[in-house]
Amino acid sequence: WCHPIKPKFVVFPGDVLKNMTDTDLAQSYLKRFGYMEILDKSGHQGSVSTSKALKRLQNQLGLKETGHLDQSTMEAMKKPRCGVPDVRN
Amino acid sequence: YQTFEGDLKWDHNDVTYRILNYSPDLDASIIDDAFARAFNVWSDVTPLTFTRLYDGTADIMISFGKKNHGDPYPFDGKDGLLAHAYPPGEGIQGDAHFDDDEYWTLGSGPAIKTYYGNADGAMCHFPFQFEGKSYSTCTSEGRDDGLPWCATTADYGKDKKYGFCPSELLFTYDGNSDGAACVFPFVFEGKTYTSCTTDGRNDEYRWCATTASFDQDKKYGFCPNRDTAVIGGNSEGDPCHFPFTFLGKTYSSCTSEGRSDGKLWCATTSSYDKDNKWGFCPDKGYSLFLVAAHEFGHALGLEHSNIQDALMYPMYKYIADFSLNQDDIDGIQYLYGPKTGPKPTPPKPSTTTSSPATKPTKQTPKTTPSSRSTTTAPVYTPVEPSVDPCSVDKFDLITEIQGELHFFKDGYYWKSVSGANEDRKGPFLVSERWPNLPTKLDTAFEDPLTNKVYFFTGTQFWVFTGQDAMGPRRIEKLGLPDSLKKVEGALQRGKAKVLLFSGEEYWRLDLKTQQIDKGYPRHIDMTFGGVPMDAHDVFLYNGHYYFCRDVYYWRMTSRRQVDRVGYVYELLNCP
Known about the structure:
The complex is a heterodimer.
Chain A: H1 22-32, E1 37-39, E2 45-47, H2 50-60, H3 71-77, E3 81-82
Antiparallel strand pairs in A: 1-2
Chain B: E1 14-19, H1 28-43, E2 49-52, E3 60-65, E4 81-85, E5 96-99, E6 104-105, E7 128-130, E8 133-135, E9 149-151, H2 156-159, E10 162-164, E11 186-188, E12 191-193, E13 207-209, H3 214-217, E14 220-222, E15 244-246, E16 249-251, E17 265-267, H4 272-275, E18 278-280, E19 286-287, H5 288-300, H6 326-336, E20 397-401, E21 404-409, E22 412-416, E23 425-429, H7 430-433, E24 443-446, E25 453-457, E26 460-465, E27 468-474, E28 489-493, E29 497-502, E30 505-510, E31 515-516, E32 522-523, H8 524-527, E33 537-541, E34 544-549, E35 552-556, E36 562-567, H9 568-571
Parallel strand pairs in B: 1-2, 1-3, 3-5, 6-19
Antiparallel strand pairs in B: 4-5, 7-8, 9-10, 11-12, 13-14, 15-16, 17-18, 20-21, 21-22, 22-23, 24-25, 25-26, 26-27, 28-29, 29-30, 30-31, 30-32, 33-34, 34-35, 35-36
């Protein structure tokens, strides 16, 4: 048995993925789809913690509400989707 | 369901729309039809009517674009964001934009309408036979003018039905040339071009001149995508070049090497290392109809729903036989009310005394007893398909049983045979062949020595000898840790060992002792480099190890080298 091959990842020209880390991807996703900036009852906009934003996302997508960046949440974030934000603000 | 703040809605029921441009992926008539059907989804349940305008300003302006396409929300290349739309209102409000870096189809692979030929514009039939060879794409074989063509039935030799496939040699779209074909070579700003180009444009659309000199005549059109063309990358519209070299290695098929996202790509010249020209390989694509129906929901005033089966759920999912979820109906009727007027009635069969209408009866196949065998193998009859296996994006489990690959999903299974140029069989009911198993299964394997089949779900497993089952038993009985939630994959090693996979670890089960060997678990990465750590299914097939994640598989040789990445539906012999 030979030694397993270590994968080598390449940034392809024009590729927008740019090898983002899961945390970077999550931050950008939460912001892009309206989970980070929430309007309160008085109409003021404020930031929420990543954990709260994740819980809200998990609730919206019908996932287990852990508040953590677990595997099912990451999988959901990588799925093809509509670009309209999920959270009204 | 949710509506936009302030319940934004159109103040009139006769809503207008206009299609501003077309995608090179589909014929204009297919795009027109997809949009019309998408509007019908909403007009079927509300008093809304939709009228198409061909000029001027419509309520809903529809366009295709890439990346920065003129509003503050750029698209992101292939996959990821597919489209977006604005809530009702003036200006950009109400408009719907579709990302043209996606491969737009009707959701189940290339939808290629033919031109000319003798098939009256019928769609290509893939695969088709021509002179003893099977074709799954358009081809220019058998022609000396280079025009790609396809058969519109399964066998060209038998039916002789064919048409030409979209290509720049046949026609262009949009532009100012009324669909004329490209003229090669043509001159643009003093330079000679022998193929379609994106030069001179900042929207990445490929174009050509329809006379010998654009500089002189200013006549141009956009090039339709050939079905063999790559999607996105930096060579949109060019075909893959096989073989090609990448990091010094030669590839003769699409690969996911070099990518962390598992997407299949190819180089469009003989050397990626030298030219850096590449694109994604065509896949099933996204259903323009389904995405448009969703976007038009926004354009009518609906926000995203958190009901997973609702059309307004934000994630894309292909559904062959689409119907609106009650949540979508409730949402749109909250804004516009229910449809008024009489409901359409289904046509009734005409009956005459000489030809009475009869109910169709179920026909029982006649069986002929075999004279060669005194024992009869059980025959499992396919049931009505509940789901198209070719559109399943994640099977519960895949495993080889008696030389046939079995694909399980929600209590059904399908079978396919490697190398057999035939459709898959099924679906069959799992309960008919392996009684009393739960609907949801995690993994299974066949003991190569005894032909017993082991099934795992959650923390339980069953062992079947024919239809006789032993179990359920708890997986701890095998020596697996009681913290283990499920077994997700199995690889037979020799005749008495099986590797059981869960998460990022695996254990080796001794089938004779029915116990896990010492020294386990081991980390997958230590032994199986280059496969995804989050594979939800692992199985052995034809001497190769397969690791599946969603619709992709990573195939590994017995020397533990990944030699292919492909789509699971290839294993199912899907068209």
